[in-house]
Amino acid sequence: MLYKEWRRPTERPSWQFYVYNWSNAQAILEHRASSASFQEIGPYQYEEVAEVVDVKYHQANGTLSYRKRTIFRPSGPHSTTTNGTESERIISVNFVALVASHLGHSMDYSVQRELSFMLHNFHQTVTVTRTIGQLLFTGYREPMMEPLRKLVCPTKRRSVACQDERLAYFRTFNVTRRASEVYSLDVGLKDRSKYGTVRSWGAAAVPAAHGEFHPCDGFADLTGEFFPSRIERDQAIAIVLPELCRRLTLEFDREQLVAGIMGFRYAVRLVRPFRSAQMSESSMRSCPDTSIRLGRYGILNTNECNGFPLYESDQAHVYSNESTSFSSDSDLLYYVLEPTTGTVLESNIGLTYHTFLRPNEHIALFQSVPELRIPLFRFARYYRLSELKAAKLRQLLHLLDVGHQIALAGCVAGLTIILLAVVYACWKAERPSKTNNDQYRIIGMQLSDERSKRLESERADEG
Question: Where exactly are the transmembrane stretches of this chain (predicted)?
């Protein structure tokens, strides 16, 4: 049953996406306004439909190798959302041009000038008007991408610009239906402590500490699908989300009741992915060709794991932004785990992403632009155990509790029997013995009988 649920999950996380429309872009670029204005549009509600394919069991090491296919389906009518439609067009920064400028920063002057001419020849602008669907999932073909690949890919092999796919904030699974790279799941047959550990093929032989990691590293960690049983509240749990290019540390916060089940609520502490020194060209060239990096596959496409100028926003900055609306709980990062079985009762991962518009003196399009932080999108991924499975889990926990009580009662009964046996043995040892008295009595009776016989014999002789 667990295997079938893992292959084709019936409980699907729900996603809410928000995008930002740059309402005064022209005024900012012409230096007629002092502050940028961004309008949040959404939510666009989807459910995550995942399927595990190409499963193979490897008996030698007790692991399952597999690929994962993920698509997003609208949880309501596809064309409508709360505040708009997916086909609605918004103004955002031209991510293709921004990527060209970003990648060119570390290149030679001649390459940067070639990029500048390329942007001019393809009539690129700082901002573009796109539909929300194109920005999020379906992506779009940009004629400039092909010459850009030829120019930057010989040295920038890590970036999504070098992959032949549409450009979108999220990978275009809804268009291509591609599966992921190969992962390996440890089922705990060889070592129970490694149950649920997922490893990327090509992971570093000596992985970095959980506090930081290198973009070359793969991973060999829990991924949030399976957790160990008998969880201790004072022990932090480290997990990795390869789909989002993030490592997380779960730290116990408090107990929380979910669907009648007491669970441990863990606050999520994000581990920042890379330092700028790790993203240098010389550092990236040291990556082995066979290495499967953490960000090579994932739901999130254009992120910093792939060398793209897309960054996760600090939550403190997000909450201080008055132009965005947040509920009290929807944007918190947390997991609620049932400690006995390690079952995920509830989880929420809410992240906001932005980019930076920066002047570049060697690229004409960006020579006079202001330095500006531009919010792009945010999402909240929410999961909660269904009522049916919660009922089954409650029943299982009840049986475990009853079994524990029966075992405890058996232990008490056994100890009672042993105690009674000891008391009885002590009592019997201290009790006066009657065996000798009985023997004397019997002997005495025997002597009396013999004496009477002698008397009778003597009387007979006298007679």
Answer: 406-427
What mean pLDDT comes out for the span 266-282? 61
Give CA–CA dist 118/126, Å, rounded. 14
In this structure, the strands spanning 183-186 and 372-384 are unpaired
Q: What is the pLDDT of residues 29-63, one digit of tens each?
A: 998 888 999 999 989 999 998 899 999 998 888 88
Looking up tokens 């009762």, which residue turns up?
A: 345
Rounded average pLDDT over 338-348 = 93
- Shortest CA distance to 50 belongs to which of 66, 34, 70? 70
Which sign does the torsion angle of CA 264, 267, 269, 270 carry?
positive
- The whole model's pTM is what? 0.78
Read off the amino acid at residue 92: S
In three-state form (DSSP H/G/I as H, E/B as E, the rest C), the secondary structure along the chain is CHHHHHHCCCCCCEEEEEEEEECCHHHHHCCCCCCCCEEEEEEEEEEEEEEEEEEEEECCCCEEEEEEEEEEEECCCCCCCCCCCCCCEEEEECHHHHHHHHHHCCCCHHHHHHHHHHHHHCCCCCEEEEEHHHHHHHCECCCCHHHHHHHHCCCCCCCHHHCCCCECCECCHHHHCCCCCCEEEECCCCCHHHCCEEEECCCCCCCCCCCCCCCCCCCEEECCCCCCCCCCCCCCEEEEECCCCEEEEEEEEEEEEECCEEEEEEEEEEECCCCHHHHCHHHHHCCCCCCCCCCCCCCECCCHHHCCCCEECCHHHHHHCCCCCCCCCCCCCEEEECCCCCCEEEEEEEEEEEEEECCCCCCHHHCCCCCEEEEEEEEEEEEECCHHHHHHHHHHHHHHHHHHHHHHHHHHHHHHHHHHHHHHHHHHHHCCCCHHHHHHHHHHHHHHHHHHHHHHHHHHHHC
Cβ atoms of residues 85 and 96 within 8 Å? no
The first and second tokens of residue 298, run together, are 């994932």
pLDDT at 84: 47
Cis bond leading into 43, ω under 30°?
A: yes
Q: Check pLDDT > 80 for residue 302.
A: no
Q: Determine the pLDDT at residue 368.
A: 92
Give CA–CA dist 463/458, Å, rounded. Answer: 8
* pLDDT value of residue 441: 53
**168-184: average pLDDT:** 75
Amino acid 438: pLDDT = 53
Tens of pLDDT, residues 357-411? 999 999 999 999 999 999 999 999 999 999 999 999 999 888 887 887 888 888 8
